[in-house]
Design brief:
With about 300 residues, this protein is α/β, with parallel strands linked by helices. The chain has 8 helices and 9 strands. The two termini are about 35 Å apart.
Length: about 300
Amino acid sequence: MKLPPLPSYQKYREEFLSKGVSIPLRKVVTEKKGLLETLPKTHRVGWPWIEEVSIEDYESNVNWPKISVISPSFNQGKYFEETIRSVLLQNYPNLEYIIIDGESKDETVDILNKYSPWISYWECEKDRGQSHAINKGFSLASGKLYCWINSDDYFTKGAFKQAAITFLKSKAQFLYGNCNNLKDGKFSIHHTPIVFDRYLYMPGVAQPSVFWDSDIHQPLWEELHCTLDFELWMRIAKGARKKYIDKVLSVAREHAEAKTHTKDEKLRIRWQEDQDRQWEIYGPMPWERLNKESQLVRKIFKTFPVLKKLF
């Protein structure tokens, strides 16, 4: 069985143009002293509330690659402001931030209006789900480095600089780092395993800690509801030059509404349906053998951490 036809970004761009959207989008406005003093005030503390990456951290003689960040959003306003601030307060000098909201009914639109002056583009319209929203966002993107961050997750301080520097030095096309899981106010680190092509079948890559060269990007398979990132990595990372960043680049929330941690039986069925669709195309996964092999590789890298620098 072959992969079904993927959506046309040209068609999506034409739809945006018909609504009066100008492409390429404007970049995120930066200030000489950073955005912290300009953004809406908050009574919360820590990153990304009263902290920012210093503008001085970005050497003026570096040709910083444009980073395009996409945020799909739907009814997660109680988390979304933190997501937005974690993007803007990177103070990255060449940034494009696109938010595609699926017509949220909570406080999301108020938040978007509040931060609108610093967002390249946002809309609040009914869509066909997360994959559709992400594809719409990427159809507008003009960056060299791509990533997406969901509206209940956020980037760590300095993540963009780390990704950009690694990209420039390594010439890698697929960059991936570690992630902190946040549950009930407590953090636990998720160490992303070393990603060889043979392990792309294995879940484990932390989606919000992945950046990739726009040259290898492909549209997401929109019929997938749960395994959209996993399936995308299988297509764009295979054969690409990869680089592991042994740092925490993002924070992923574990909560009842999150698809990854849901106890909802209907959603669990969707997970299984997505996986079944994938294996019809990519073939049966030798799960037991690859899992044992992957675990052995993890032990080797844990015992000899210097080896991580080779990947």
